[in-house]
Automatic annotation (TrEMBL):
Transmembrane segments: none annotated. PANTHER family: PEPTIDYL-PROLYL CIS-TRANS ISOMERASE HP_0175-RELATED, PEPTIDYLPROLYL ISOMERASE. InterPro entries: PPIase_dom_sf (IPR046357), PPIase_PpiC (IPR000297), PrsA_foldase (IPR050245), Trigger_fact/SurA_dom_sf (IPR027304). Keywords: Isomerase, Rotamase, Signal. Residues 196-288 form the PpiC domain. Residues 1-19 form the signal peptide. Pfam families: Rotamase_2, SurA_N_3. This is Peptidyl-prolyl cis-trans isomerase. It comes from Pseudothermotoga hypogea DSM 11164 = NBRC 106472. GO terms for molecular function: peptidyl-prolyl cis-trans isomerase activity.
Length: 350
């Protein structure tokens, strides 16, 4: 416990160095570190997103020496400050997403957010076999805020997530693909749908040449190939399927090279073998054959439609980001007070 308290105190000392940019009497909930189109970002929000307390505690437990350098040297503190600025940049972008969503008429209902928060909280409690009281105590003990802080962070995460999701759906709603587009892509890219020569096969594998010759003799006498396969085959792929190997494409690698050459040189109905391979002695029956050609449009239409829809949606999204979101960001009034003085971003200059 004493060691834990020392860690917490050291974390506080490190974090307090960042507070020197603000008045000593201010609290994190009132200190403003940025403004985004009039929407204030407080030190409390930034600390919640940066979560430095947790990061520093984890780092201290992993590497004491690096932790000391990071929290007690100018270079280390500058690195932590840079990290906080990057977190702030990301938080500003999140706020802009919510704001542009509102301009597009997208506002996530509070009930939706609370339902998502409750579900995520329950999942966390179940995963760690904790109650809300346990979690609140743990967060406070580890200097990670409290249960309400945890919920507030979830509320913000889900607000941004749901807003972004609805923006994406709205921006890409015109990405539906017509049958004509599918057909045109198929005709213009037929080489993608080439299929090699294939054969539908039955197979029997036995351990010795003597066993293979006996199998061949039974087949020649008119016994059913599938029945024999069910009785004697040791082939792990076909022994429980009455010897049925199914359709095999040439050059697929499923067959031994010598076997493949003989199978595809044989007519439908032929018996091929016995042939010695690393798996044993193999015997095949050629049931059907298909020449080299192309998959039918009906076979691949669904995959083509999905591919084209995803490509179109990606193009629409990238266009929206470049032409709408970045334009909105550049015209926004963004002021950053995290560093000494005032940094102004976006379209408003001071």
């Amino acid at each position: 416990m004493k060691k834990f308290l020392i860690i917490v105190i050291m974390v506080f000392l490190a974090l307090n160095l960042f507070a020197q940019e603000t008045t000593s009497s201010a609290t994190p909930s009132t200190v403003v570190v940025a403004e985004v189109n009039g929407r204030q970002v407080t030190q409390e929000e930034l600390d919640r997103e940066a979560n430095l307390n947790r990061l520093l505690l984890q780092l201290q437990s992993l590497d004491e020496r690096f932790y000391q350098v990071l929290t007690s040297t100018p270079e280390g503190l500058a690195l932590l400050q840079r990290y906080k600025r990057e977190v702030l940049n990301n938080l500003i972008d999140q706020i802009l997403i919510v704001q542009i969503g509102e301009k597009m008429g997208i506002v996530v209902p509070k009930e939706t957010i609370e339902k998502l928060v409750a579900d995520e909280l329950n999942k966390t409690l179940s995963q760690y076999n904790m109650t809300e009281t346990d979690l609140d105590w743990y967060l406070k003990s580890a200097n990670l805020g409290d249960l309400e802080t945890f919920k507030n962070r979830l509320r913000w995460i889900f607000t941004v997530q749901q807003t972004l999701q609805q923006i994406y759906q709205k921006v890409t709603e015109s990405s539906a693909i017509s049958d004509e587009e599918v057909k045109r892509f198929y005709e213009e890219n037929k080489e993608f749908f080439t299929v090699e020569e294939s054969a539908k096969l039955l197979r029997i594998i036995v351990e010795t040449q003597e066993q293979a010759n006996k199998v061949l003799e039974r087949i020649r006498k008119g016994e059913d190939f599938s029945q024999i396969a069910s009785e004697v085959s040791i082939d792990p792929l076909t022994k429980d399927k009455a010897g049925e190997l199914g359709w095999v494409e040439r050059y697929s690698g499923l067959l031994n090279q010598e076997v493949e050459e003989k199978v595809f040189a044989s007519p439908v109905g032929a018996i091929v073998g016995p042939l010695k391979t690393s798996g044993g002695w193999e015997i095949y029956r050629v049931l059907e054959k298909k020449p080299k050609g192309y998959q039918e449009l009906e076979e691949v239409a669904g995959d083509i439609r999905d591919y084209l829809a995803q490509s179109k949606a990606s193009e629409l999204w990238q266009k929206w980001v470049q032409e709408e979101f970045l334009k909105f960001k550049q015209s926004s009034d963004i002021k950053v007070y995290l560093l000494s003085g005032t940094e102004t971003e976006g379209g408003s200059q001071q």
